[in-house]
Each structure stands twice: as C-alpha cells, then as structure tokens.
Amino acid sequence: MKIRKYLAADMKEGLIKIKKDLGPEAIILHSRRVRRRGLRGFFTPRQVEIIAGVDPLKKDQQTSGIMLKKVMAKEKEMSAMADELRLLKSTVSELSAVASTAEEEHRVPGIITKKKSSNYWRTYLEHHDLDPTLLQEIFVEAEEDAAVPGRMSHSRMAEILQEKAARKFKCTDGFSHRSQIFIGPTGVGKTTTLAKLAARSSYNDAEKVGLITIDHYRIGAIEQLRTYAEIMDLPLEVVMTPQDLFKVMVRLEDCNRVFIDTAGRSTGNREQLDDLIPYIDMLVPADIYLVISATTRRQDIGYIAERFKKLKYNRLIITKLDETTAYGAVLNGTYYTKMPLVYLTDGQRVPEDLIQASEIDLAKLLWRTG
Ligand SMILES: Nc1nc2c(ncn2[C@@H]2O[C@H](COP(=O)(O)OP(=O)(O)O)[C@@H](O)[C@H]2O)c(=O)[nH]1
Ligand SMILES: [Mg+2]
C-alpha cells in the first residue's frame, strides 16, 4: 500500500490534494489538526494533517473509491452546514452583544460585565509576570476606552487590552552601524544569536562579515564561535586588550559588518562589566544589543537593565521564547531598558530560530497559552 502524509489548510483542500495525487481510490487512514512548529506556528492558523493510502496492486478498489467520494460529499455537506452555523452564530452574537468565540482559549460563557471581563484579563495577564505599574497603565487606558455606554463583549475587551499593550512595545529593524556588539548575562544566547545574525547577513544580504570575540579574561570561551566561523567561512579574531581591538578593526577593514561577542561577565560583578567599557568606547557608534532570556524573572530584568546601562546598549534581543509560557519578559524588557526590541529567538537552530520583532504582533504573545 502506498501511504502518504498531507498538510492542508482544511479537510476540503486536503481531500482535493489526495484525490489529485493518489486518485479516487485513496483511503483516509488518519487525520488531525496540527500547528506549525515553533513560535511562528502561533501566528499561523492550524493545519490539517491527513494520512492517506492507496493500494497500487489492487485493481478493484471500488469500495475505497466510494469511501473517498463519500468523505468528500460529507465534507461538502459539513462545510455548507458550517457556513450556516457561522451565519447563525454571528446573528446571535450581534443580537446579544456577547462575543464568546474570538479567543477560543478564553471563552467565557454567558453575559459578563465589563468589570468582570477586565478582572478576568488582569488575572490572566498577571501570569505573564508583567511589571505591575505597566499592567496598571494598560488597564487604566483600556478601561477609559471601555467606558462607552452599553455592554461590551469579553473578546472586545481583550482586543482593547491588546491594542494598549501593543503601544507599549518599541521595535526597530535592520542594522544602523557597521559594528554589532552583543552584551548581557552569561548563558542567555549571545553567541548563538550572533551566529544567526552573522549567517543571515553573510548569506541573505551578501555582506562581507567579520567576527570578533572579546575574551578579556582568557577564559577560552571562543571554541563555540570558532566553530560557527569555520562553518560559515568567516574570519574570526580574538581580542584580549583594547589595543588588540584597534589592530583587529584595522585588519577587518574590508568587512562592511563586524559582529562582536563578549564572554564571561557576570551581571553582579561590577569590575568585570567596567572592564568592557574601553572596548565599547572604541567601537561606538555601534548597534549594542542587550541580550536577555525570556525566562528571566521580572525583577532580574530590571537589575540587568540597570547594571548593563554603562555599556551603552541601544537595542534589545529577547531569547529562548520556546522555553517559557510567560511572555512578560518581552514587554518588561522594553519597559525597563527603554530600548527598542529588534529580535526574538525561539530555538537553538542557527540561523533558523530568529524572528524580526517588527514583523509580528508582539501583543498577541501575551494572549498565547502554553
Ligand atoms: N531553547 C533555546 N536555547 C537557546 C536559544 N538561544 C541560545 N540557546 C542555547 O542556550 C545556550 C547558551 O547559549 P550561548 O549562545 O552560548 O549563550 P551566551 O553565554 O550568552 O553566549 C546554548 O546551549 C544555546 O544553544 C533559544 O532561543 N532557545
Ligand atoms: Mg557566549
């Protein structure tokens, strides 16, 4: 038996594909609704995965042929019924002014008052560990908008909150300078993210790229970047003093983009952070990314934002979105640093797991459930 797997937007589209590919004798063996992998899956509708098969040796497959035709007829009938149902549903919802389906995960049955709806969303958003002042600002603004006479649906309240939350994000995109510097606590994904961006600018944008790692403490944490440099065939320079850095920048003169990694600095160690200042001073003007993991607690983001300020960061990257279900860090990060968010990362794969912040609806992240 020839067995194939199909992905389609809906069952109807899937059945057309199968019929075209395997013929009318195909049998549906299994079907289920799936999301695309990773963060992107959240922003795209669910798909239908269908496993279908056909026995090429069996001439007489009348029964199975009929089966597929029957399924298609049933599907047509179901889709007409679904259309009618949708129409009915929207009429009912208009009449009662109670919406309940816009956010499937947050359906609240029956009539709900504005106050109750607002309280519901407040509890929901608290799960994301948002800064309380920021949360309060969002709710005050939303409640002003919601203060129109008459009832308001639960989903409309969510929309207003999303609009208000969206305004709190600051985003930017693209590179503004030749030097791209990555700073932040250890283990957050600086080197990995640097490699993702270097790969993209070298392959996608055909830029001439150079890599530098500042290894002031001779801790030898350069192997990881060396491996990426070898795979991507990019020059890598290791710098141990500010004087080295000067010479290296001259050596990389023909590179129009230089990515600079920093290693081995603890947020709590003031001297270690101070030691980076002369390097940064030599490189400015530069795009200086503060890299923070989405798994970082709210209070720690505030602490990191403060501690690294002396290194003059002007952009923000939030990593490891795949490792949490609380996305407050994304909003807290821009709120505490007052800097625009440029990239998000949602996995270890280089260069795939990188998302440009300006390309997605960031407020929607807060309405994502685990
Ligand atoms: N799950 C997940 N892991 C990541 C992500 N970015 C980096 N990592 C992993 O986090 C670990 C530390 O990353 P690294 O780049 O060495 O961090 P650095 O110390 O800040 O340079 C490595 O195992 C990376 O593969 C991400 O977006 N998601
Ligand atoms: Mg590193």
What would you say this structure looks like, in words?
With 370 residues, the chain is of the alpha/beta class. It has 3 domains: 90 residues, no CATH class; 62 residues; 187 residues, Rossmann fold. Helix content is 45%, strand content 17%. The strands form 2 sheets. An 8-stranded mixed beta sheet has the order 6-5-7-4-8-9-10-11, with helices on both faces. The chain has a 3-stranded antiparallel beta sheet with strand order 1-3-2. Helix 11 links the parallel strand 8 and strand 9. Helix 4 runs antiparallel to helix 5 and helix 11 packs parallel to helix 12. It is flat and about 75 Å long. It starts with a strand and ends in a 5-residue tail after the last helix. It binds guanosine-5'-diphosphate and magnesium ion. Magnesium ion binds next to helix 7.
CATH class of the largest domain, named Alpha Beta
In total, how many domains does the architecture comprise?
Answer: 3
Helix content: 40-55%
Q: Please, what is the oligomeric state?
A: single chain
What's the number of helices?
Answer: 13
Secondary structure tally: strands: 11
Shape: flat
Coarse structural class? alpha/beta
Overall pLDDT score: 84
Query: Can you list the ligands bound to this structure?
Result: guanosine-5'-diphosphate, magnesium ion
